[in-house]
Amino acid sequence: MREWDAVVVTGIGSITPLGTETITMWSALLAAESGIGARALNPGSGLPSIPMGSMASDPAGLLDPVAAKRLDRVQQAALVAAREAWADAGHPDVDPDRLVSAIGTGIGGVQSLLREHDVLHERGARRVSPRVVPMLMPNAVAAVIGIEFGARGGAYTPVSACSSGAEAIALGARLIRSGEADVVIAGGAEAAITPITVAGFVQARALSHYDGDPASASRPFAADRSGFVLGEGAGVVVLERAEHAARRGARVRAVLAGAGIAADAYHLTAPAPEGWGQIAAMRKAVAQAGIQAGRIGHVNAHATGTAAGDLAESAAIAEVFGIIPATAPKAALGHLFGAAGAVEAVVTILSLEHGMVPPTRNLGAGGVDPALPIDVVTSPREEAHEFALSNSFGFGGQNVSLVFGRA
């Protein structure tokens, strides 16, 4: 990679079930705490109280009340995370035409859509909010961030299910390397815990049916894993051309060394049996980083806790790296869908920065599934390597892998 087109991370921000600030989330992950608890939905839905990872604080309460009322919950979460990331980056002085917003989401403002749909049927068309369209449209997440920071270089919205946030980060790096941007505010946001989404996943038998402590329901890599746990939140990174960051004396938290994107082209929900898309994404990311696979110290795994998904991913990781340490933050956070890849990119950056890999909780008495060819990190482990890889795989067979390097 040419030095002038290197991409660095100068700011990170998040709001998750483990905290309203990134340092709080990181400390909780290292301590193997959980952000998952039981939550009841609309009583009229007929759905039971199930484990969920709600944001640690209502994002509306962290914003100006008048402004918050104009935003869907997903937009509120993205704005909270972006403000933290921008401040962490030192409020970059950048040409607005060279500043881009790229925020992915799997669904967008579904809560506003469902709420106003009920208003329409219960109170009539004249009572529907005139703001409902900008609140429900997926691209409003990136637009809100672009408006907040004056990003006139473009507002991009990858919508690729669970890989949306990671794809937005990959897109941001591509825009910088192509010469189209100097700084990109990139990440993902999701706030889609609603009766219809829960009911759909229940019917698909995708959610965890662990009947013990809700905090133990998300069990990636465990022998008794039974599905994922819904979560919500946002993660944002500030990507910057290395030359631009150096010129303003910015602190560099990590290098985004490589990004790989590949599609299974196989099935809308099931991973390809041989894992070719996942393998291709990881190999592309490593190749773009210009390193050998052996220089990757650990993998931040997509690992949602489904039987087929964890098996396919562990086999794909083993094909590319052999038996390598892996951690699964979704055990503590739940599955944040469009935000997952961005939040876990932040976790990977912090792992390199602090030289420590957070543990995977909830492996239980049965421990790691012996059928999985992977070294699961079960207690905080020192990370001495220079590089780490983060995986995000989405419905539709969309696979994204990101390689980060120590600053």
Structural notes for this entry:
- This protein is an alpha/beta fold and 407 residues long.
- The protein has a single domain, classed as Thiolase/Chalcone synthase (Peroxisomal Thiolase, Chain A, domain 1, 3-Layer(aba) Sandwich), CATH 3.40.47.10.
- 33% of the residues lie in helices and 21% in strands.
- It has an eleven-stranded mixed β-sheet with strand order 5-4-6-8-1-9-16-15-10-11-13, sandwiched between helices.
- A hairpin with a 3-residue loop joins strand 15 and strand 16.
- Helix 3 runs parallel beside helix 6 and helix 10 crosses helix 11.
- The two termini are 15 Å apart.
- The model has no long low-confidence stretch (mean pLDDT 95).
What are the defining features of this structure?
407 residues; Peroxisomal Thiolase, Chain A, domain 1; 3-stranded mixed beta sheet; globular
How would you briefly describe this protein structure?
This protein is α/β, with parallel strands linked by helices and 407 residues long. It contains 13 helices and 16 strands.
Question: How is the largest sheet built, in terms of strand order?
Answer: 5-4-6-8-1-9-16-15-10-11-13
Query: How many structural domains does the protein architecture include?
Result: 1
- Rough shape? globular
Secondary-structure-based class equals alpha/beta
Give the class-level CATH name.
Answer: Alpha Beta
Total DSSP E strands: 16
Number of helices: 13
Cα-based radius of gyration, to the nearest Å: 20 Å
Residue windows where pLDDT falls under 50 for at least 5 positions? none
- Kindly report the average pLDDT value: 95
What is the third-level CATH name, the topology? Peroxisomal Thiolase, Chain A, domain 1
